[in-house]
Design goal:
The chain is mainly β and 237 residues long. The chain contains 2 helices and 10 strands.
């Protein structure tokens, strides 16, 4: 018995005992010294409840790794986006609603201080032909005439109304009181001696209907004589 106790452990036994001790105490040593790294953690074992709230930071995330599926729907707000960084290509146009103040712009009608723009396409007339209505707005009508005068042809712009106490004016004439049933008032007269010239017109009715505009007039006495009108009107009311 004494001979057994007196025997010294072999070097192999000592080394194996040290290895066992290190393997059993490595994790505890790491916890004690604060040096646990990924080698001491089993894959897929760290969970959300193991992480202190508000501790994960930008520097802990790999660039370009956070994706849409990682973000809860309807949680990103305007304050989370840098100013002037959202562009047209980031927006689905079909989801945009109409701007309330532009709701009436589809038909180009009045929107705030804007008025409907009426385009009068080139309209030709022979001298002596029946006057042509170029535009109508409420009770007001703008009329084109091609009249023989002495040895010339005259292109004329006139206004008529179906509402009493209307008013009209132009480059050549004005009347502050035009009533229904009266002969149309010639506002602009262009002789064929002048060839081509612009004419300004304005008219209004007590009901609030009105228009202003500029038209180009052309008069020619060549042959049977002819006239042409074209331009635009801003319709109001």
């Amino acid at each position: 018995m004494k001979s057994i106790l007196r025997r010294r452990p072999s070097p192999a036994l000592v080394i194996s005992m040290i290895a066992l001790f290190v393997s059993l105490s490595g994790v505890s040593y790491g916890v004690a010294t604060g040096f646990i790294d990924s080698r001491e953690i089993k894959n897929n074992e760290i969970r959300s409840l193991d992480i202190r709230n508000n501790e994960i930071r930008t520097r802990d995330l790999r660039n370009n790794e956070v994706r849409g599926i990682d973000i809860r729907n309807s949680t990103v707000q305007g304050r989370d986006i840098a100013l002037n960084t959202v562009t047209g290509e980031d927006i689905n146009e079909t989801t945009l609603g109409k701007v309330p103040s532009a709701a009436s712009a589809d038909s180009a009608t009045t929107a705030g201080e804007l008025s409907t723009l009426k385009i009068i396409p080139p309209t030709s007339m022979a001298e002596g032909a029946t006057p042509v209505t170029l535009a109508t707005h409420g009770p007001l009508s703008l009329i084109g005439k091609c009249v023989a005068a002495a040895s010339n042809t005259e292109a004329r712009l006139a206004v008529s109304t179906t509402e009493n106490n209307s008013a009209a004016g132009g480059t050549g004439a004005a009347d502050p009181d035009i009533d229904a049933g009266e002969t149309s008032l010639d506002l602009v007269v262009l002789s064929s001696l002048s060839g081509v010239a612009p004419g300004n017109v304005v008219a209004s009715a007590p009901s609030g209907k009105a228009f202003t505009g500029t038209l180009g007039l052309y008069a020619s006495s060549i042959g049977a004589g002819s006239c042409k009108f074209h331009g635009h009107l801003a319709l109001q009311g």
